[in-house]
Structure formats: C-alpha cells, structure tokens
Write a structure and sequence with these properties.
Number of strands: 12
Helix content: 40-55%
Number of domains: 3
Structural class: alpha/beta
Distance between the termini: 23 Å
Order of helices and strands: EEHEEEHEHHHHHHEHEEHEEEHHHH
Strand content: 15-25%
Strand order of the largest sheet: 3-4-5-2-1-6
Largest sheet: 6 strands, mixed
Radius of gyration: 29 Å
CATH topology of the largest domain: Rossmann fold
CATH architecture of the largest domain: 3-Layer(aba) Sandwich
Bound molecules: guanosine-5'-triphosphate, magnesium ion
CATH class of the largest domain: Alpha Beta
Length: 437
C-alpha cells in the first residue's frame, strides 16, 4: 500500500461548466474532514445528504447546499471524499473553490486525478477506467451499454478467469518438471496443461472476434455516400443530418472535400461521410476529391451507392458492403429491384433507407456488447493468443518451453488489466478526462 497521508487533498467541480440548477464539487484526500468542518460545520454522518450553509473564512455565507461525506476506504477514490451540491452559478463555484483551495494541503485536481486515485487504490482496473472514460463520452445507446459493461469490470473479470486458468496450467507444468526424470517422455500433467491452454485459447479467440464491433461502437460506424456527380449525395447527407451541412447545387462536381456528420441511428453511432462525385476530371482539385472519395469507400463499414433514377441503371455494381440507392424518385426514371428508391424532395423512402442501414450495421454485431473495444485490448489478447498457439502446436516439447509460453500469455493479460506496463497508457488516458473526473 502506498502511504497517502501526506498526499494533497484535491478539489474540483465535477459537473459540466456553465449555469445549472445544481453543480457538484468533489473533494478527495486526507484533509477532507477538515475541509467539511471548516466550511460546512460539524461533520455530516457518512453517506447522508445533509443541508448545510457553506461559509467563507470571515463566516459570511457562500451558498446553501447538500453536503455528503464518504469516509475512506469505501469511497470512489479509497480516500475520504466529500461532495458539495451547490447552486450551479459561476460565482458560487468560484467563491467555494477559492475558499477550499486556500485551506492548507488542498489544491485543484488535475485532469482525471480522482479516477487515477481510484485506480491506484485498486478500486478500478485499467479496463474499467477506460470504460468510465467511454461512458462519460458516450453519445448513443450502444456506446452507453458497451461502456457500462466495461466500467463494471466485464473485461477485467474475464481476464482474471483466463489468467487463473493459465496459472493452473503453469502449476501442472511445474509439477511435470519436478517429477519427470531426465530423458522421460512428457506425461499426463503436460497433457492436462495443454487442454487448459486450448480452452483459454478458444475463449480468447472468441473475444478477439468481438473487437471490430467493439471498436466500431466506440468510434462510430463509417457510412460513405458515393456515386457520380449530381446523384444527390449531399442532399441525402443534409436530409439525414436534418441540417444544412453540405452545399447542394445542380452543378456537377459541387462537393470536393469529404464532409462528415455524426448521427445516432437507433442507438448506433454512425459517421456519415459525403464525398466528391466520381468522374474523370481535369481539375486537379476535383481529381483529388475523387481520389479521397475512393479511399473513403475502401475503409467504409457500409457504402451507400447512389445514382439518380433518370441515369443509366446498370452502371453501378453493388457488393455485400454496399446499399444501392436510386435517388430523385419524384422524377421519371427506372429503379432496379435491388435499389432503395428515395426522394429528398418529397421524403419518399427515407425512413426505409434508414432502417436498411441500421439492419446492415446491426448484422455486423453479435448479441452481447463487445468485450474488446480498444487497440490496446486487441494487441494484448493477440499477444496471448500467439503465445498459446505456439504452445498448443508443440505437444511433447519440454515442459519448460511450454511454461515460458504460458508466462508470456499471462503477462499479456496483466497488461490488459493494467497490472504491468501501465504508466504510458495511464498518462494519455487520464489526460483525456476532464478536471473533476
Ligand atoms: N427532384 C429532385 N432533385 C434532387 C433530389 N435530390 C437532389 N436533387 C437535386 O440534384 C442536384 C444535385 O444534388 P447534390 O446533392 O448536390 O448532388 P451530389 O451528388 O452531392 O453532387 P456532387 O457534389 O456534384 O457530386 C441538386 O440540384 C439537387 O437539388 C431529389 O430527391 N429530387
Ligand atoms: Mg455533393
């Protein structure tokens, strides 16, 4: 345990900045009781919201509000924690912060410092901290569910199960090494260890399979609008965004730069990207736009391939990652059976197109929220898989060698939950939190 008695006590506004009915100010550290007693009178009973008048050093009233005291170690950070729920005005918060930070041993918190202390006290593992960060950033229902599950420790729990199974296999191999005489063939204990490793390997592979979905839900599904000039791509972007984002005009080649909007489609986070109309162009700027459009199509999760009903219907091949869309259905023309007919002019087919997009993206998902959501998770699990695959491919090899592969796999899992090799990850992660988290 680290000695925290001389750690500074930190204070920060934990609610969003700006005017609000109520704002929350948090305090954590050894001076918390003193902070409460000097500003809010006698210490309130633990975990009971208590109405108090908050006073400055001259005894003048700053505000009235609810005060809560969470004694350590059963608090968020593991230290003594206090919460002030006061009126959410700039002046109240400024006066209260001035008062608190003037007390000895108290200073303003740095970004993510509350969560960092919680992590250091063992209240959250690294994956849970990442889940908390994602939950605070979550904008759609799928993001919320995935982040919540991770914050509640689903990945940490699973990693712990993998790890203890592997440690059991390691023990078996150690016994095998102890009991076997020189020149002996490797025996039943090694066999048993290999079986355990195989089972863990299967489970790791399954988790790895959820990564691409986890990453998509965290970062957003990329849906690209593609097609010839004047197909109505920018018009559709504006209609789906319900905002006038992109310039629309009858001039072919209007859009050059890719424009993106973030949408919440039935709980799925989507990054919808409008691109330049595809055609040969002598204009270097337009040609660059077309090149970028093609590159975006390559990395899209779903491409909406647009053409106007009054254009040649057989020009555009569609594939699995494409939805064919016939635009301007209010005009005379033809629609192929595989096309979704829409009109931005009269709204026809837009709701159906949205449902089709959601159905396609949902089809990429398995039922449960994904376990792996970041490149860091993928890399750690892939490293564990690599080590165990090597082991599984060498039955009968000296148990010392197999034990080394298990050790490497266990190390990878320790990195996953942040037991080792965390400093650089922590610095970037906590820097991404706001002050007061
Ligand atoms: N009648 C009708 N006209 C439409 C519809 N959608 C778009 N248009 C018109 O078609 C023209 C081209 O629309 P845009 O949305 O700019 O087409 P685009 O595909 O973005 O074109 P580029 O950016 O040049 O590649 C504009 O004059 C729009 O008003 C529609 O549903 N019905
Ligand atoms: Mg356009």
């Amino acid at each position: 345990m680290i000695d925290r008695t001389h750690q500074p006590t930190i204070v920060a506004v934990s609610s969003a900045p700006g005017r609000a009915g109520v704002a929350v100010l948090r305090v954590s550290g050894p001076q918390t009781r003193f902070v409460l007693e000097t500003t809010a009178g006698i210490l309130p009973p633990p975990r009971v919201a208590t109405l108090r008048t908050l006073r400055d050093e001259a005894g003048d009233e700053i505000d009235r509000g609810l005060v809560l005291f969470f004694p350590g170690p059963t608090s968020f950070t593991g230290e003594d924690v206090a919460e002030f729920q006061v009126h959410g005005s700039r002046a109240v918060l400024a006066a209260l912060l001035r008062r608190l930070t003037a007390l000895p041993g108290v200073r303003l918190a740095e970004a993510g410092e509350f969560t960092r202390r919680a992590f250091e006290a063992g209240k959250l593992d690294l994956a849970a901290v990442e889940g908390l960060a994602d939950l605070i950033d979550s904008e759609t229902e799928w993001q919320r569910r995935q982040a919540l599950r991770q914050m509640e420790g689903a990945l940490g729990l699973q990693a712990g199960q993998w790890r203890s199974a592997l440690l059991e296999a390691m023990t078996l191999l150690a016994a095998e090494i102890d009991f076997s005489d020189e020149g002996d063939v490797e025996g039943p204990l090694q066999e048993e260890a290999l079986q355990i490793a195989q089972a863990v390997l299967g489970s790791l592979r399954q988790a790895l399979g959820s990564f691409s979905m986890g990453e998509r839900v965290r970062e957003g599904f990329v849906v690209v609008l593609s097609g010839p000039p004047n197909a109505g791509k920018s018009s559709l972007l504006n209609a789906l965004a319900r905002r006038d984002v992109a310039i629309v005009s009858p001039v072919a080649g209007t859009t050059r730069d890719a424009l993106e909007v973030r949408l919440d489609l039935d709980g799925l986070p989507v990054i919808l990207i409008d691109t330049a109309g595809l055609r040969e162009s002598a204009d270097p700027v337009e040609a660059e736009g077309v090149r970028r459009a093609q590159a975006l199509v390559e990395r899209a999760d779903l491409v909406l391939s647009l053409r106007a009903v009054d254009s040649d219907p057989f020009r555009m091949p569609a594939d699995a990652a494409t939805l064919a869309v016939a635009t301007k259905s209010d005009l005379a023309g033809s629609v192929r059976p595989d096309e979704h007919a829409i009109s931005v002019a009269n709204g026809q087919g837009l709701a159906e197109l949205l449902s089709a997009i959601v159905a396609r993206l949902r089809g990429l998902a398995q039922g449960e929220p994904a376990l792996l959501t970041r490149e860091r998770h993928r890399a750690a699990v892939a490293a564990a898989i690599e080590a165990l695959q090597r082991m599984a491919a060498s039955p009968g090899a000296p148990s010392e060698l197999l034990a080394e592969d298990i050790r490497l796999a266990v190390m990878a899992l320790e990195r996953l939950v942040g037991r080792i090799g965390v400093e650089d990850v922590l610095d970037t992660l906590f820097a991404g939190f706001c002050i007061g988290k």
